[in-house]
C-alpha cells in the first residue's frame, strides 16, 4: 500500500471538492449525510433529557457524557464508513441510495473492522488526553468539575440570581494544554479520516489502517494545516453570519410570539449542521483518495470480512 505525499495546495483542493461532493447523485449523498447528522444529535439530546429529568450532579453528568461517548465510539465508525461508501459509489458512477449508509452495520459490510478501528482510535484519544492532562494540566480537572458544579447550581436555581457566583480562574497551564490539544486533535482527525477510509474503502485491516493513517498524516502536514486553517476561518465566518441571523430572527419573531423564534431557528440550525457535515465528509473522502487510493482504480471496494482482523 503506497501512501502518497501531496502538495500544500491540495488543502484548498480538498475543500473545493468537498463543496462539490455528491453532484452526481445529491439525493443519495446528501440524504446519507442528513441521516448521520441527525443521529449525531442523539447523544446530546439524551444528555439534556436525562439531566432535566434526574438533575444529576456534576460527577454523574460526567459519567453520562462518558457513557454516550463510548456508544459514539462504537457506532460512529459504522455511520461514517457508510457515508464514505455512498460518496465513493457516486464518484465512481455506481448506483447508490441514502439508505446504503446502514449497509456497514452487517458482518458482510465490514462492521467488525470499522468498530475495531473506532475502538483503537478511541483508546488512542483517551491515552493521549490522559497523558496531556497528567503532564501539562495540573489543576484542570478540578477546575472543570468546579465550573460544571457552579453551572449546574445556577441552572437548578431557575431565575438568574442578582449576583451570580464568580467562576474560578482557570489554572495557569491551561493555555499550553489547549494548544497541545488542538495540535493533537488536528493530527488525530487526519489519522481518523485516512485510516477509516482505508478500512471502509481500501479493505485494510485495523492495525494496517491505523499505521496508514499515522504515516499519511505525518507525510502530509502542509496540506492538512492549509485545510485546517481555511476550515477554521470559514467556520468562524459562518458562525458570525449565523449569529447575526439568529439575533435578527429572534427580535422579529418575538414581536409575534416568543415561541416563533424556536420554530424558525430549528430548520436554520439543522441546515447549518448539514452543510458542516457535507464539507467534513467531503474533505475526508478527498483526503483519503489523494493520499491512499490507487491511481485510476475504478474497481469496486474489496470485500470485507465482518471480523476484527489485527
UniProtKB/TrEMBL annotation:
UniProt keyword annotations, A-Z: Membrane, Transmembrane, Transmembrane helix
Domain of life from the UniProt record: Bacteria
Regions that span the bilayer: 28-50, 62-87, 114-136, 174-201, 222-253, 259-279
Protein name according to UniProt: Uncharacterized protein
Organism: Luteimonas deserti
Lineage, broadest ranks: Bacteria, Pseudomonadati, Pseudomonadota, Gammaproteobacteria, Lysobacterales
Amino acid at each position: 500500500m503506497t501512501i502518497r505525499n501531496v502538495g500544500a495546495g491540495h488543502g484548498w483542493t480538498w475543500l473545493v471538492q468537498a463543496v462539490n461532493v455528491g453532484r452526481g447523485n445529491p439525493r443519495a449523498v446528501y440524504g446519507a449525510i442528513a441521516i448521520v447528522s441527525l443521529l449525531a444529535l442523539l447523544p446530546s439530546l439524551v444528555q439534556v433529557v436525562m439531566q432535566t429529568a434526574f438533575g444529576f450532579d456534576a460527577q454523574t453528568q460526567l459519567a453520562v457524557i462518558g457513557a454516550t461517548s463510548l456508544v459514539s465510539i462504537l457506532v460512529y465508525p459504522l455511520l461514517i464508513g457508510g457515508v464514505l461508501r455512498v460518496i465513493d459509489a457516486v464518484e465512481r458512477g455506481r448506483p447508490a441510495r441514502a439508505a446504503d449508509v446502514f449497509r456497514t452495520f452487517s458482518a458482510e459490510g465490514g462492521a467488525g473492522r470499522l468498530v475495531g478501528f473506532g475502538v483503537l482510535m478511541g483508546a488512542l484519544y483517551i491515552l493521549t488526553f490522559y497523558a496531556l492532562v497528567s503532564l501539562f494540566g495540573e489543576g484542570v480537572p478540578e477546575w472543570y468539575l468546579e465550573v460544571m458544579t457552579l453551572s449546574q447550581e445556577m441552572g437548578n436555581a431557575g431565575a438568574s440570581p442578582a449576583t451570580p457566583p464568580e467562576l474560578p480562574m482557570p489554572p495557569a497551564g491551561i493555555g499550553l494544554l489547549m494548544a497541545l490539544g488542538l495540535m493533537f486533535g488536528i493530527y488525530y482527525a487526519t489519522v481518523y479520516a485516512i485510516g477509516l477510509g482505508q478500512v471502509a474503502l481500501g479493505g485494510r485491516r485495523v492495525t494496517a489502517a491505523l499505521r496508514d493513517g499515522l504515516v499519511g498524516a505525518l507525510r502530509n502536514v502542509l496540506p492538512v494545516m492549509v485545510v485546517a486553517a481555511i476550515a477554521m476561518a470559514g467556520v468562524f465566518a459562518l458562525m458570525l453570519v449565523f449569529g447575526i441571523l439568529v439575533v435578527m430572527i429572534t427580535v422579529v419573531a418575538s414581536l409575534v410570539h416568543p415561541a416563533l423564534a424556536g420554530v424558525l431557528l430549528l430548520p436554520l440550525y439543522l441546515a447549518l449542521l448539514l452543510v458542516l457535515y457535507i464539507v467534513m465528509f467531503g474533505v475526508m473522502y478527498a483526503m483519503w483518495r489523494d493520499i491512499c487510493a490507487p491511481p485510476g482504480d475504478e474497481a469496486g471496494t474489496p470485500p470485507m470480512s465482518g471480523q476484527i482482523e489485527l
